[in-house]
Amino acid sequence: MSDFLLPAPVQTMIDAINAGDTAAFVDAFTADGFVNDWGTVKAGADGVRSWADTDAIGAGARMTVLSAATDGDTTRIRFGWSSRVFNGESDGIFVVEGAKLASFTIPPSH
To answer: Which pLDDT does position 110 carry in this prediction?
Structure first.
């Protein structure tokens, strides 16, 4: 849990990562939702699950929100990440559509 008030779909996705719950992670997204990790896009339930399996939950990831700001349907965060794939800080951009995430983007840091 973070100390920031985040839109419910954003918090749901973060909680799913930290709980190691792939089903909840996938369910946090719309049917055509996607993860864009440095330009690699994984779309739809199968794509989102694939990213969770290789880069997040399957890699033992933990995500800590360091800062957050929401403007309309877009939330931007700075987060700490630890996993067997990557350790460090990144930016994240979430777009909410209704009660789900339309997208989660991790832009290149350079």
So the answer is: 56
At residue 11, the 3 state secondary structure works out as helix
Q: What are phi and psi of 100, to 5 degrees?
A: -135, 170
Taking the C-alpha atoms of residue 52 and residue 73, their distance in angstroms, rounded to an integer, is 23
Each residue's pLDDT tens digit, 52-107: 999 999 999 999 999 999 999 999 999 999 999 999 999 999 999 999 999 999 99
Question: Domain ranges in the chain?
Answer: 8-106
Q: Kindly state the DSSP code that residue 99 receives in the 8-state scheme.
A: T
Give the pLDDT score at 21: 98
Phi and psi, residue 11, nearest 5°: -65, -40
Helical (H) or strand (E) element with 55: helix 44-55
Length of the chain: 110
Q: Per CATH, which fold does 8-106 belong to? A: Nuclear Transport Factor 2; Chain: A, (3.10.450)
